[in-house]
Amino acid sequence: MRVLVVYYSRSGNVKKTAEKAAASRNADLLEIKDTVNRKGPVGYIKSGYHAVKKKSTPIGRIDTDISSYDRVVICGPVWAGTMASPVRTFLQKYKSQIREAEYMLLHASKDNNYDGIFEEMDVILGKTAVMRTSLSR
């Protein structure tokens, strides 16, 4: 089974998790590159605002043929209790190329698995993920 681990990481935490996930699955790794500057306190606030408003954001071009993978593992952070904008954009843009999906969310809450985000990701993709992992950092 060919597996691709796709991730977005504003601060580097999700990147580390995605790298471990890719290594453990012998999978390829692909970064979602956000074209919006999200550095520092202003970037942090902007990120939360965009997430709460469920805004898409411009992301960098992806040259990888996503449809050539049997499973795509989508890793992203939780922003302000919802899906990070770059992850939302990736799902919207590449949903037709994803055969089978798996999700990994990284967040600070010890009391919330963010099932609502997983459900929203399923709705965007038009299919149910085969696995959902919620990781508290």
Task: Tell me about this structure.
This protein is α/β, with parallel strands linked by helices and 137 residues long. The chain has one domain: 3-Layer(aba) Sandwich (Rossmann fold), CATH 3.40.50.360. The protein is built from four helices and six strands. Strands 1, 2, 3, 4, 5 and 6 form a six-stranded mixed sheet that branches. Strand 1, helix 1 and strand 2 form a beta-alpha-beta unit. The model has no long low-confidence stretch (mean pLDDT 93).
Quick rundown:
Helices cover 34% and strands 24% of the residues. The chain has 137 residues and is α/β, with parallel strands linked by helices. The longest helix is centred in the N-terminal third of the chain and has 13 residues, at 13-25.
Strand content: 15-25%
**CATH architecture grouping:** 3-Layer(aba) Sandwich
The coarse silhouette is globular
Distance, first to last CA: 29 Å
Number of strands: 6
- Total number of helical segments? 4
Chain-averaged pLDDT: 93
In CATH, what is the homologous superfamily?
Flavodoxin domain
- Biggest beta sheet attributes: 6 strands, mixed
Helix/strand layout:
Layout: E1 3-7, H1 13-25, E2 28-31, H2 40-52, E3 71-79, E4 82-83, H3 85-94, E5 101-107, H4 115-125, E6 131-136
Parallel strand pairs: 1-2, 1-3, 3-5, 5-6
Antiparallel strand pairs: 3-4
Index terms:
137 residues; alpha/beta; Rossmann fold; 6 strands; globular
